[in-house]
Amino acid sequence: MRNLALASGLLGLIGCSSLTPTNDPVYLRINDLEARLIRIERVLENESLITLAQDISSLRNEVQTLLNDVETLTFDLEGQSQRQRDLYVDLDQRLAQIEDAQSRIGSLPVGGGAGGGGFGAEAGALTDLQAYDQAFARIQQQDWQGAEAAFMSFLATYPASQRRSNAQYWLGEAHYAQLDFPTALTEFQKVLDNYPQSDKMADALVKIGFSHYNLGNMDRAREALLRVVREFPGTSAADQAQQRLQRIAAEGD
Length: 253
Fold this sequence. Notes:
The chain is mostly helical.
């Protein structure tokens, strides 16, 4: 429309002039302006295309940078999860050592001497405490398969031992450490079913929740962990359960 108006004005000017178009300075000047305007419009169009291409290239670089950041964060989270698992196993082992020391103190005979026949076992036979200590040593050495076999043997050999609930729990731990979460669930559940008064109830419930979490059963994991918080408030098991519940809630957002 602008060019059309300009052309109409030119015709009007030319019509009023007595000179030929090739000699009329106004006509020549307008022709020059028209040519310059066309060149400017072409330059502007080219610059717009260049700018658009530059913007697309910049966006591609930003997307690639974001993808790299996501990969780095994913790797860091996986490493952190493994470090937390190792830390928890170490803490579990240290707690077990304390419990074992308490068990040793409680099993000492009151007023008995060193020549009182030991724990009443036959010569050459292991007492339940000795067998338990040998099995637990496997846990401390992180010999999970050896611990699994030793605690299974203990449970079969000492049906009346007061350490059966602990042995049952550590059998579950041996499977858990080997990432055999279905079997670990079964063994931890036996602590709840067979030893409801055991000191290992809270720890077994926590590991039931953790096992369900690792198997992707978030509803059942949440159920077990909430039970720990509800029934064992103020304990380290409740703290662990609360932390895992917070992680589950964060992952669900």
